[in-house]
């Protein structure tokens, strides 16, 4: 199943950069005085900083829609579609979308905007910072098929941030059953929160149990550890490290992007 990565990206073990959109209409922190144009302008600056820095893909998310909903309001995906529509002609690399924390809305947005992949929580029941959190992967998978979005790849976050899986199951058995029963296109392994390190041993357990399904390291990738992480994982999703001073709220810093991509490229030359 790793063949889709080869088809989608120019390099092995791709580095996918998060493009975190500013708070959107309906969000508690939305700047209604500045309006959507400010959201678009920041997204444009960060898109070009990431692309110019050499990342292999982009994942566009409403990361600043805090506190998150597990079933989003329509205005969120609609606003994200507005931003992507204004930027799509400037996107030169594969891109995906993530409407936090709503798998169905993520697939709808991908279908509407031409995105090639989505990342979301598609399986499990959790006690989370956002309350009791349930999913229905069968319903979402059927929805994807019904709207003609089978080409949209689903990246399952197997270790959700800010949440604990309610069933007492170890990561190995959880990964094996997820791969067998729910047909993910890839798995993402995370730390506790955005930017938190992902334990390499945890990553190795998931990679071994996933078989042919690609596994991405989803948080905590930095220039100094990207080689170690990619030695295990099939790719990396990077957000916080690319920000100025490595601070989640800041804008993307092109120097940090180039630094991490260079470290990743040095490792990938040996493959």
UniProtKB/TrEMBL annotation:
Sequence intervals crossing the membrane: none
Matches recorded under NCBIfam families: thylakoid_BtpA
InterPro entries: BtpA, RibuloseP-bd_barrel
Name of the protein in question: BtpA/SgcQ family protein
Protein family membership: Belongs to the BtpA family.
Signal peptide: none
